[in-house]
Amino acid sequence: MAEKTFFTKVGQTRILPLGLKILAIFVCLILFSNFATNYISLQLSKREVITLNNTIMIEQLKELYNNSVNQYEIYSYSKSKENTVEALSKVAKAGFEHDNSVALALKRNGNLDFVVCNNDSTIWTRFIDETALNVLLDDLSDGKMEGSISFKGYEGEYFGVYKYQEDWDYFLIRAELRRDMNKSINRVFVIISIIIMVLTIFFIVMGYLILEKQFRPLHQFTEALLEMQNNKSLGIIDLSKAPNDDITYFAASFNSLSTAVNSLLTTFQKFVSKDIVAKAYSGQEVGLEGRQQELTMLFSDIKSFTFRTETLGNDIMDVLNVHYNKVIQNVHTNEGVVGSIIGDAILAVFGTSKTEQSKSLNAIEAAWEITRSTAELRRLMNDRKVAIEKKRELTESELKVFEAVLLDVGVGIDGGEVFYGTIGRDDSRNPKDAHMTNTVIGDTVNSASRLEGLTRIYHLPVIVSEYIKKEVENETNRFKFFEIDTVLVKGKTEGKKIYFPLDSADADPLTVMKFKTYEMALQAYYEGDWDAARFNFRECGLDVATVFMDRIGESRAPKNWSGIWTMTTK
Question: What is the DSSP letter of 357?
């Protein structure tokens, strides 16, 4: 079961699910709406509570006032102030609801005739808010004897109601500490907020489950698209379990587009090299461009191709397709790029991209794989011939066809500075008239072709230049390079050493010994000691030695012999 990830990453960027974004937006809006509504509601309720408290305190003040009138009459006879204060305190305390509820008897000079506080630990010695006292005195002078009041006390800010008592000549005040009122309101606010959060969390979970179910197809589509991006290929999104909505329609449209693009890419890949395909797929513009690069060229050609074409006729195309199916695979497996295919010949380029091993080593490994693949095809055809001959004899025409399908190839490899890029016509205004091709130009290309031609002369499957020898020997000792000859090709003024790269993984000790004997013969040949050369050429028993035996015959080396063989054909 595939591991489900909450957040998908593209590179270093996290991709947030669309459903989560929608849910987060709604949660923020709901929370803001609930808290704002709650706050406004509490503020409005606060006013109502204060008004209600004032109404209650007014009733309590009236009762206290009436009792103060009665107590004044009692005091007039008893002259006991303590009994009067005690009686008024009992009446005042009967209406207290909060810890800091207070009833005051405030004299004009700011002294307190008596103080009754629900919290016995609070000690009032004097009315400390001179501003509030002055307001009371100003209102009294204006004939206003009762009303609302706010003042500062020992515990904080108070609000309440007052009434002037003429008999005692003081203001009776019934007040509540504003902090007590705010504390009750804040407690309600906290309780409501907790309820809102609990309900919000509940609805978040429910909303996420609902949205996750609704957007599950979209998440699957996104995962499929990301997988395609990572694999650098377009695929088809599975719509078998998708609902019938506009998102599915979007995915179906993408599938249609993906099919068309894949068809174009598949066709595109068949006609251009894979480095151009990779460049186009990555979004880079492919235009007329090129530059000098140090690359390795591999040139492979089918031997006796004219005979095979005449014999097989149209069937030669089928044979070529079987052959190139293996050859191109060998090139690509070894990080090469097919530069061009011309009839029976193929040009491969190595070094256009960075690889773990050198371009020349890749080219030699590809050359040997091409040679082995061709040999395997010949073996299969021979096995087929044997199977038929057990039943009947092959006709002359059948034998001729059999010889024609036994393909044999030669491979030449050289490296150096070449021009690699695209040439042709690039018309952005009229793309239909544009035509470009990927090409490689340089003397190294011609040299690789000439080296392939030498494989027919020297009866060797692979021939490489000294450039290839040096680059590979600096990297590995897997291949043993035996010098074959020094030749001066047509159109050149300097001789060039050519080498046969023997794969030590396949070579037996006897073959190695034969090539060492051949090298001794070649050294004598260079030095002009053709008698010793003839002897060692015969001793080595290699096909390549017959070339030199025919070349020197029974003669001696000519005067001014340089050891370089001049070729008269390309």
Answer: S
